[in-house]
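Usage example:
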Amino acid sequence: MSTDEIILDEKENVMSKVEEDIYDIVADKADVDRVKLVRDARLDDLEIESLDIVEIIFAIEEKFDIQIPYNANDAEMEFETVGQVVDAVQKVIKEQS
Amino acid sequence: MNRVVITGLGVFSGAGKSTQEFWQTVSNGRCVIGPLETIPTDDLQIKIGVEIKDFDPKEHFPKKQLGLLDRFSQLGLMAAREAIADSGLTFEGEDGDNTATIIGCGVGGQETIDQAYYHIYKEGRRGVHPFTIPRLMLNAACSHITMENGITGPAYAIASACSSANHAIGQAFHMVRSGLVERAITGGTEACIALGTMRGWEAIRVMTRDTCRPFSKNRTGMTLGEGASIVTLETLEHAKARGAKIYAEIVGFGMTSDAMDITMPSFEGASKAMRFALKDGGLDPTDIDYINAHGTGTAANDVTETKSIKLALGDDHARKVSVSASKSMFGHALGAAGAMELAVTTLAIKNGVAPPTANYEDPDPDCDLDYIPNEARDMKINVAISNSFAFGGLNAVLAIKKFNG
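Running the assembly step on the lines above writes:
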């Protein structure tokens, strides 16, 4: 087993409650099958559009009582994968808790 | 079919409380975006916009009239007063029946709605002000313009979000051209700096926190700006008969619906609207000298609009044409935007000066046309188009021509 796989494996095993909540929100708001939501899943492939992202971010803000400074015009904030959304949210939660 | 000319202009906006002041601002490429002062911004993430400063409605409206006026009607009336006075039109008897009043607005009385809901949900009051409905209704500004002037012809409001004013002006243009009426009062008004509205806009994540930089690579979104702009239209025959001054001629109007997405624009839909405006005006793509772009400063609009201009005009002419985004200076007035931009375009044609795209800093490979960066350009403009593309995929493009007799 390569190092990469071990890290991935550990991550999956210890998937936090936060991560699970985020996946639930994404599945609900973007109407995506929950089992398809893995870190590497691409938003494009899941047909998650920019307006879905805006709604997902809002639901996450409400759920965790945080503010995510997301601007759809900012290329640096473009999310490509589900994992990137999770990481961004976890970072904000850490900063704001 | 009648030829249709513009004979009066009125602008009331953060960039100027008269047409002259407004032109002074835009022809100098001055951006008036700044911190919001008329609403509490403590809890807002977006704290900038364009507001009309030093405007005390009590100085302009009698108490009884003012009680019925949401801010969007106040702004609309202020612009209409200037346009009508500028045109010299009067509305006694049949002249009133012979004048249409078609006014664009995106939302209506946003301040009134905010206040009413505050009373109901926050303060738990049982009643709201009895004028809540007549103040907030979308046709209020239109109706007050007819009442103040005794204009008794066809009158209604048109709502298509950011294209409202262009749809209204286009409709009025068609009415005058077809001979349904000889004159029209048209344009748009929007008082969008209300707390609830600002919250709504910041929630959709397309607003910039610093300033609006259309077509610039480092753009970070759009900025709201309140305002109103009204024009008077007449048949050429009518204008000539009364010796009216003529600013420019409206020659074409094109509209399409993307039928695709509620927020994302389509370059095909926008491009077709431009082509239809040209066709309606009997123009070739190569006739166009200047385009007043929709140019909101969002990632999606500016790339799509650039692509749509290339498709409509052909790559070769698209690269020769001068394009600028007035929203870089006075923000996005939503349902009034097209009317304010028609004022810009008309004055640009009349004065031979194309206003710039302000705050342009960094070329974007995906926005590779000539956007008149930062400084106005002296140029002869014979034909121009003014683009409006709305949320909901509703596109409306006006074609305006220098009046050559």
